[in-house]
Amino acid sequence: QVALLDIDICGPSIPKMMGLEGEQVHQSGSGWSPVYVEENLGVMSVGFLLSSPDDAVIWRGPKKNGLIKQFLRDVDWGDIDYLIVDTPPGTSDEHLSVVQYLSAAHVDGAVIITTPQEVSLQDVRKEINFCHKVKLPVIGVVENMSGFVCPKCKNESQIFPPTTGGAEKMCQNLNVSLLGKVPLDPQIGKSCDKGQSFLSEAPESPATLSYRNIIQRIQEYCDQHHFQEEKTL
Amino acid sequence: QVALLDIDICGPSIPKMMGLEGEQVHQSGSGWSPVYVEENLGVMSVGFLLSSPDDAVIWRGPKKNGLIKQFLRDVDWGDIDYLIVDTPPGTSDEHLSVVQYLSAAHVDGAVIITTPQEVSLQDVRKEINFCHKVKLPVIGVVENMSGFVCPKCKNESQIFPPTTGGAEKMCQNLNVSLLGKVPLDPQIGKSCDKGQSFLSEAPESPATLSYRNIIQRIQEYCDQHHFQEEKTL
Lengths: 233, 233
Prior knowledge:
Chains A, B: It holds the Pfam family ParA. Chains A, B: Keywords: 4Fe-4S, ATP-binding, Cytoplasm, Iron, Iron-sulfur, Metal-binding, Nucleotide-binding. Chains A, B: It is found in: Cytoplasm; Nucleus. The structure is a homodimer. In chain A, strands 4-5-1-6 form a four-stranded mixed sheet, with no helix packed on it. A three-stranded parallel sheet of chain A has the order 7-8-11, with helices on both faces. The first copy, chain A, has a two-stranded antiparallel sheet with strand order 2-3. In chain A, a hairpin with a 6-residue loop joins strand 9 and strand 10. Helix content of chain A is about 40%, strand content about 20%. By secondary structure, the first copy, chain A, is α/β, with parallel strands linked by helices. The first copy, chain A, contains eight helices and eleven strands. The interface between A and B is large, with 57 and 56 residues.
């Protein structure tokens, strides 16, 4: 059982990417019901509360934090194995609030996404710095948009060049895990736009293999983390 | 004379992209002095206030707004023709504050950047919606990452496919101008990482031609806007 919580309040993309646009949140006796993609995958996003997908949520920090608190307190997630929280970029209200509100729950850690260029890595170093400051473990880093193979001539181009060594070098320097590199595949964008699962649509793509590997490594990390927590309890 | 103000407080990329990393802001009798790239281009960013480029600014909205106010009030920009404000994505504190603090200055308008996929266009529709709500004119939309030409076989790939017609269709539907499309060129990422001007480094690139066109269209818009404002005064 997996729950996916989108706390990008001003730019919620999860409903579209999960094929759930137009869905509404329902109130039940035990709170808000998430929207289910499949039986074992429930989703919550501010997108489900808007009357149109183009509506802007023009809210300052405190209002955003209030909704995040409601998402964590008032949604009846049921009995879940994983709660995945998707955040916007940055180190501000959304990040501080979710870490604070979940502090008693012993969050397993953060998965941090970057692209290969130094301009992105610089932001990611700030995010890692943030995790250290708030004592949130870093599960690892994923390098996205990691090279493109021309469908015609099979030549590989580094469209977002790793001028300073990419995520690999950064992870070595900061002593965090590199969970994997996901190559650019136009089908990824198409699947997101259509709300389809890229992993089902393109099961043979190198990007799919990379995603599967990354998921497995995260699962192993969480299993290990729980085992150690049980030992210390 | 151009001034560039970076109000992405938690992810300032302007110092690196302008080749100004390690520069510091100096206090003068008339306020803070911007950092100059060239004589006619002054820059201000929270990046100049950090002791290391990897330092995280872990601030909630009100503190970010306070710094934006300081940037607008306490920086001695000198006599400038253009003030360009670079914002993070979203429709929250930074955007509300800059529009509010500059409301008496009659801002010319917003230039909005997207990529071709629907997932990005959805966020951009929210930004356009925001501009309408706060009565900020929309100068136009730029489509970034708009196709990639393989350097080996010259075949063009839509790496971020415009599944719903891209920025062009969206601009038609919303009755806003499309300022141009910038193709993917690996040299752009390299120039940003090295703090060099892509326009000087790759003067013949189709992306450079596109940038030049876009700049010209923005200048024309601003000239027109000022002319009309003078007429109404």
